[in-house]
C-alpha cells in the first residue's frame, strides 16, 4: 500500500530553547532563512507524500500560519516588485495539504501520534519529529519509503551512537538482513548502561503500519504519565515484524542548542546565496582560535 500521509508532532513546549521558545514555537526557529519545520515538510514533499498532519497544541498557530496563504504579504511584495519573494511565498502555501490535530494533554510522543488516528485511517504513514533534521542527497524519508515498498512492514530510522550515549536514545537490537537493514528483535527506551550491546539508536523518522494505533491504545503510561512510543513499537514489531534502517545522511538534533548551531553551519555551507562568503568567514574565525 502506498504511503500518502505524514504525521509531524509539534505540540511540545520546547523547554530546551527557553526563553527563545516562550513566544515562538521551537519549530519556527530559523536555520539560515527558513524555520526548522519547513525543512521537515520539504523533505516530506520531495519524498512523494501527499498530506501533512500537524499534531499541535496551544501557542502553535504560527506553524499553521507559515504554510497558509497571506494575501496582505503577497500584495505588498508584488507592489514592491519583489516578484521572486512573492512567488516563493505562494509556492510555500501550495507545498502540500496540511491538516492540524490538537493534542489536548501533554502525554508524550506516543499519545501525540495516537491523536492522529482518525485522520490517518487504516493506512501506513510516516512520522517525522519536528526538530530532527537530516541533510542528505536523497531525502531520508524517500530512502525509508524505498525499503518499506520492498518489505511492507514498519521501518524506523537508526544511526550508530557511542555506547556511552545509548542511554539517551531508544535502542534497537536485531540482525542485519542486508546492508544497512536490521530485522528488529528488541527495542528499549533509554537503556541503563550495560543492559544492551547495541549502539543503534532510533532517530526522528518512522514509517508505521496503522496497527500502531491499537498498540498505543493499550500502552500503559510510563514516567510522568506519558505514553512511550517505543513500548508500542516493540509490541508492533512482535505482532508483525519491523525493520531498522541505517539511513544515508547526517542528522542534526535541532531541538538541542549545540545541534541547532551545527545545523545552521551545515545548511549555510550549502546555501547558494551565502555558502562561499560564509565558508571564508569560518576560515577566518578558525584562524583566530
SSE series: EEEHEHHHEHHEEHEEEEHHEEHH
How much helical structure, as a percent, in the residues? Answer: 25-40%
The separation of the N and C termini measures 54 Å
> Biggest β-sheet: count, sense, barrel?
5 strands, mixed, barrel
Description:
It contains eleven helices and 13 strands. The chain has 289 residues and is an alpha/beta fold. Strand 9 and strand 10 (181-189) form a beta hairpin. The mean pLDDT is 93. It has a five-stranded mixed barrel. It has a two-stranded antiparallel sheet with strand order 2-3. Strands 7-13 form a two-stranded antiparallel sheet. It has one domain (5-278): Spore Coat Polysaccharide Biosynthesis Protein SpsA, Chain A (Alpha-Beta Complex), CATH 3.90.550. The termini are far apart.
Write the layout of secondary structure elements.
Layout (H helix, E strand, L loop, with lengths): L4 E5 L20 E2 L2 E2 H11 L4 E6 L4 H6 L4 H9 L3 H11 L3 E6 L6 H6 L2 H4 L4 E4 L3 E4 L4 H12 L2 E7 L9 E9 L2 E9 L10 E9 L3 H7 L10 H12 L1 E5 L3 E4 L3 H12 L6 H14 L1
Parallel strand pairs: 1-4, 1-6, 4-5, 8-12
Antiparallel strand pairs: 2-3, 6-11, 7-13, 8-11, 9-10, 9-11, 10-12
Amino acid at each position: 500500500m502506498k504511503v500518502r500521509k505524514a504525521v509531524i508532532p509539534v505540540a511540545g513546549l520546547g523547554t530546551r530553547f527557553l526563553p527563545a521558545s516562550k513566544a515562538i514555537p521551537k519549530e519556527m526557529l530559523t536555520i539560515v532563512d527558513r524555520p526548522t519545520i519547513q525543512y521537515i515538510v520539504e523533505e516530506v514533499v520531495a519524498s512523494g507524500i501527499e498530506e501533512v498532519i500537524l499534531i499541535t497544541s496551544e501557542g502553535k498557530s504560527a506553524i499553521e500560519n507559515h504554510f497558509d496563504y497571506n494575501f496582505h504579504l503577497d500584495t505588498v511584495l508584488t507592489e514592491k516588485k519583489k516578484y521572486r519573494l512573492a512567488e516563493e511565498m505562494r509556492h510555500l502555501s501550495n507545498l502540500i495539504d496540511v491538516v492540524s490535530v490538537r493534542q489536548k494533554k501533554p502525554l508524550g510522543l506516543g499519545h501525540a501520534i495516537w491523536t492522529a488516528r482518525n485522520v490517518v485511517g487504516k493506512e501506513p504513514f510516516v512520522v517525522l519529529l519536528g526538530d530532527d533534521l537530516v541533510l542528505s542527497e536523497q531525502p531520508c524519508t524517500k530512502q525509508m519509503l524505498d525499503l518499506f515498498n520492498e518489505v511492507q512492514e514498519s521501518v524506523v530510522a537508526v544511526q550508530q551512537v557511542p555506547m556511552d550515549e545509548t542511554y539517551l536514545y531508544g535502542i534497537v537490537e536485531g540482525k542485519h538482513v542486508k546492508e544497512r537493514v536490521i530485522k528488529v528483535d528488541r527495542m528499549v527506551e533509554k537503556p541503563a548502561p550495560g543492559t544492551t550491546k547495541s549502539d543503534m539508536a532510533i532517530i526522528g523518522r518512522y514509517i508505521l503500519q496503522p496497527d500502531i494505533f491499537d498498540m498505543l491504545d493499550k500502552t500503559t503510561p510510563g514516567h510522568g504519565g506519558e505514553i512511550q512510543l517505543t513500548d508500542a513499537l516493540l509490541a508492533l514489531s512482535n505482532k508483525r515484524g519491523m525493520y531498522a534502517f541505517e539511513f544515508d545522511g547526517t542528522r542534526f538534533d535541532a531541538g538541542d542548542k549545540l545541534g541547532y548551531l551545527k545545523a545552521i553551519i551545515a545548511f549555510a555551507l550549502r546555501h547558494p546565496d551565502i555558502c562561499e562568503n560564509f565558508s571564508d568567514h569560518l576560515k577566518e574565525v578558525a584562524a583566530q582560535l
